[in-house]
Amino acid sequence: MKQATKITGFTILELIVVLFFFALISGLALPNLHSAYQSWQRKLVLNDLLLKISQLNREAINKNTTIKLDDQKSLSDLPFQWPSEWEIKTEHPIIFFANGVCNGGVLMLNNGNDSRQYQLAAPYCNPIII
Question: pLDDT (tens digit, 0 to 9) for every residue of the chain, 130 residues total?
């Protein structure tokens, strides 16, 4: 007498149901993925800017010059490329002297969607969020 062999596996209906749920969940998640990526990209650029600003005192020492951080007009004088989507405002000019000391002040960064204020405390002017 022959024994029937049991065939294991998934039916086509089970596979279609799983693919349907996968497509449904993906359709719900993808719109949020784009905004999450844009938010991550803004934070990345902002962190890079803050790092470059915190290194301006070392740049002033290395080049033996004074670096002025004021408004949009002074951005061309900076030793790095300022991203065009970010605007800068200060209460008064923040000056990094050739000896590495700066006079401090409040720095406001704005890119349309996001606005942040940072305190640059003398003498080294490391950015601290307000």
Answer: 667 777 788 899 999 999 999 999 988 888 888 888 988 998 999 999 999 999 999 999 999 999 998 887 778 788 888 888 889 999 899 999 999 999 999 999 998 888 899 999 989 888 898 8
Asked if residue 123 has a cis previous peptide bond (ω within 30° of 0), the answer is yes
| 78 DSSP 8-state letter | S
Sequence-distant (≥ 6) Cβ neighbours of residue 39 within 8 angstroms: none
CA distances from 25 to 14, 20, 29, 115 (A): 17, 9, 6, 33
Q: What is the identity of the amino acid at 125?
A: C
What's the token pair of residue 108?
């406001």
Which tokens go with 37?
A: 């990526």
Which of 60, 66, 54 shows the shortest CA–CA distance to 128?
54
What does 33-53 look like in DSSP terms, one character per residue?
A: HHHHHHHHHHHHHHHHHHHHH
